[in-house]
Amino acid sequence: MTATDTTDPRTHCGDPYMSGRGEWAGIALGMAWLIIPILDTIGSRQTPARAVLTVVLFAVAASAYLFAIPGASGAQSRWRVYASIAAMTAAGVVLTLVVASSWAILFTYVCVLAGIHLPPRQAGPILLASVALAIAINLHEGTGVAFSWGASAFGLGALMLALGRLIQANASLREAHAQIRELAVEAERERFARDLHDLLGHSLSVITLKAELAGRLLPARPDEAQRHVRELEAVAREALGEVRETVSGYRRPTLAGELAGARMALGAAGIEMRVRERHPRDELPADVEALLAWAVREGTTNVIRHSGAHRCEIAIEPRDGGTSAEINDDGSGIDSAAARTNRDVNGAGGNGLDGLRERAAQLAGCVEAGARPEGGFRLRVVVPLPPAPGEAA
């Protein structure tokens, strides 16, 4: 943690389990149960002093509940949780003993706060103490619902404790995935640097040697120097071709990788994905497979960014003597089709549908994109396959 990070690593408070409208909906739903003791208090005859006390302590309890919720950054310190629990417990004790027994519901909120925001070793004692306190106070008041309050507080607290553990596990898993991605990128950079070094080290050494030799021979033996210059040019062109081939290999996607990436991306967007493969991948030439992989990437990107779809189907199957990749969704159809012809989809440097058409044209293939009659959008890439060795004759 940095010096400015106040998040306790042993709490759940730094986990983004709620955000935006979901957060406020959860807060409103949680505080809605306070209407029970409020109505009970209004229905009973309270002295002015008790009425003022009720308003003040209710404000304290509500503020404590909100105070324990992480801020916009998701960061939360443990002392804020303890302060909120202490304030709500004190308010609950006084309101239950002085105003109405129904205010024992505040002990349920204490259990919920402890269960969500604290790890089990710290939440467990608070949970048991709050339940015992709720039961003891209601037994003292002779309300007859002591154990009901205790059971509800314990049940909700245990549920929130389990939820907090789940949130913490999900956050740890996300962090682990992020670290794995960073390590994978770093390993790829190292491998790329190593391959370029191995590839260019010899060629650049030869180029340097021949350039120096040609420079020495030029005054006395220009014909021999010219021969070394021609050889130098040949070595340089060969090295350039090897670099281009290497870079092209690094940029070439695979169907397996793009389908896996599409499943992850669509799932994260809440879009159901179905895959139908009727053309074995091992029968596809590398450049054809790369084109279909680009189609899957472009199609799923557009589905996520522009369609508003709930379902997406990807089909890899033989078509017209060749093979095809087809991406269908049930999104906004014509509006989506119009959106997907805009420049923000096409991008720069050969990306988007224009780039896909260029890649397909290099293999004598074609790209079809448009609204489906039954609704939604279709992207289809069809590419011919080269004849098998036995058919070439």
From TrEMBL:
The chain crosses the membrane at residues 24-42, 49-69, 81-111, 123-140, 146-167. Residues 321-350 are annotated as: Disordered. InterPro entries: HATPase_C_sf (IPR036890), HATPase_dom (IPR003594), Sensor_HK_TwoCompSys (IPR050482), Sig_transdc_His_kin_sub3_dim/P (IPR011712). The keyword Disulfide bond does not apply. Pfam families: HATPase_c, HisKA_3. The keyword Transmembrane helix applies. Residues 188-254 form the Signal transduction histidine kinase subgroup 3 dimerisation and phosphoacceptor domain. GO terms for cellular component: membrane. GO terms for molecular function: phosphorelay sensor kinase activity; protein dimerization activity. Keywords: Kinase, Membrane, Transferase, Transmembrane, Transmembrane helix, Two-component regulatory system. Residues 290-386 form the Histidine kinase/HSP90-like ATPase domain. This is Integral membrane sensor signal transduction histidine kinase. It comes from Conexibacter woesei (strain DSM 14684 / CCUG 47730 / CIP 108061 / JCM 11494 / NBRC 100937 / ID131577). The lineage of its organism: Bacteria, Bacillati, Actinomycetota, Thermoleophilia, Solirubrobacterales.
